[in-house]
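in:
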């Protein structure tokens, strides 16, 4: 195991910018690594916690675990209720997409479950959203369209059962 090298406080703005850029370049592992370095110096940096959460969920299709647990830990560290609800919805939505991409028996039912959970989170976030911020509504609409567009995404006929992963 290697001992990681610390970054300097002076490099934080540049490092945060790089983390965002790596995420946009579809290099979430690199973005995650930078976020972890920044959080060593600023453990409560909300912007970086958000980037980390998104970088982790970007990796769900390749590795759901341990990224799901790490994303939920980052979520718990977000300071405001709106962000926690909104990003909980993102986690559930991306979990549904991961399930669909892996396929398998009941994957459409499981994806439906996670999309509906995401929609509930987005509804709760929309109810307390800041003025002019319709992000939660946009995400809710995306989930609804996914359910409408893909016939294999449907409710399970076995009410009360927990989804399998």
């Amino acid at each position: 195991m290697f001992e990681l090298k610390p970054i300097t406080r002076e490099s934080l703005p540049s490092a945060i910018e790089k983390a965002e850029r790596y995420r946009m370049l579809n290099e979430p592992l690199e973005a995650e690594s930078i976020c972890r370095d920044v959080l060593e110096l600023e453990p409560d940096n909300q912007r970086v916690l958000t980037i980390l959460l998104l970088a982790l969920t970007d990796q769900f299709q390749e590795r759901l675990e341990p990224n799901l647990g790490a994303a939920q830990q980052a979520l718990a560290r977000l300071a405001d209720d709106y962000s926690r609800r909104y990003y909980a919805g993102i986690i559930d939505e991306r979990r549904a997409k991961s399930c669909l991409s892996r396929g398998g028996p009941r994957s459409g039912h499981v994806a439906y479950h996670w999309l509906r959970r995401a929609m509930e989170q987005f509804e709760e976030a929309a109810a307390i959203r800041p003025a002019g911020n319709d992000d939660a509504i946009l995400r809710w609409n995306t989930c609804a369209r996914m359910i409408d567009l893909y016939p294999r995404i449907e409710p399970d006929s076995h009410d009360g059962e927990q989804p399998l992963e």
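note: The helical segments are 12-24, 28-41, 46-58, 67-76, 81-102, 107-127, 135-149.
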